């Protein structure tokens, strides 16, 4: 998904990355440096290096020695400083990603569609970036109740996905949704049908739950990255760096 891409951008080396990414990293690193955090010993070295240069040979040798001290200091501490800065940069990337995920409508429950007109309006008028999962069902049909319960759980886990359900008899196309093809799942995005699964309960065991439906949809790449999992993943990675 794009976020993975975000993780990859944040987690991997910047070698071979586009110049814009490298420049963003350098800018972030420079802006994140706090003069108060510079050790007194390094401040003194920098102060000495910034003083007027003497023509005295001895002074010049001392300056070379001081310069080497700075190089040695940088070699010793560069790795740790880079890791800390990278961790801050990745955290900023995650915050940006979280804001993008939070943009737009949020749902969190399963919408009951009463008519075929409501069904069409839902498909046609939602934002193009919104994934819509529609369950065609009827009461008393095997698997329909379990799927409705599973979708209720998934709706809470994936609030940027719009989950809906409608009885086959209310669609206005009952001949297309006969009882032997229920439950049926239809997935739309941008007003287009991108996947459909008839008699979808046959894909699961006799008893199935939200986790089974989630895994099934993820196999086809129909669900986005869960926000909670994405943030937890980054937190774990930051702890590993520390």
TrEMBL record:
Gene Ontology terms: cellular component: cytosol; nucleus; photoreceptor inner segment; photoreceptor outer segment
Intracellular or extracellular location(s): Cell projection, Cilium, Photoreceptor outer segment; Cytoplasm, Cytosol; Nucleus; Photoreceptor inner segment
Any matching Pfam family: Phosducin
Transmembrane segment boundaries: none
Keywords: Cell projection, Cilium, Cytoplasm, Nucleus, Phosphoprotein, Sensory transduction, Vision
Region: Disordered, residue numbers: 32-65
CDD domains: Phd_like_Phd (cd02987)
Family, per entry: Belongs to the phosducin family.
Protein name: Phosducin
Organism: Gorilla gorilla gorilla (Western lowland gorilla)
């Amino acid at each position: 998904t794009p976020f993975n891409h975000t993780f990859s951008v944040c987690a991997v080396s910047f070698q071979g990355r586009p110049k814009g990414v490298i420049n963003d990293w350098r800018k972030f690193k420079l802006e994140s440096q706090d003069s108060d955090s510079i050790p007194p010993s390094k401040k003194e070295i920098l102060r000495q290096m910034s003083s007027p240069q003497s023509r005295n040979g001895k002074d010049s040798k001392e300056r070379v020695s001081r310069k080497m001290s700075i190089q040695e200091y940088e070699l010793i501490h560069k790795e740790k400083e880079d890791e800390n800065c990278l961790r801050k940069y990745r955290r900023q990337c995650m915050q940006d990603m979280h804001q993008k995920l939070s943009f737009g409508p949020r749902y969190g429950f399963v919408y009951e569609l009463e008519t075929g007109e409501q069904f069409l309006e839902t498909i046609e008028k939602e934002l193009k970036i919104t994934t819509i999962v529609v369950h065609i069902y009827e009461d008393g049909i095997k698997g329909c109740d379990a799927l409705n319960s599973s979708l209720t759980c998934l709706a809470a886990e994936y609030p940027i996905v719009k989950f809906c359900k409608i009885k086959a008899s209310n669609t206005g196309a009952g001949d297309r949704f006969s009882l032997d093809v229920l439950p049926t799942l239809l997935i739309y995005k941008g007003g287009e049908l991108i996947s459909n699964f008839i008699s979808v309960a046959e894909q699961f065991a006799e008893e199935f739950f939200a986790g089974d439906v989630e895994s099934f949809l993820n196999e086809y790449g129909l669900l986005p990255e869960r926000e909670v999992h994405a943030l937890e993943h980054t937190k774990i990675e930051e702890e590993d760096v520390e």
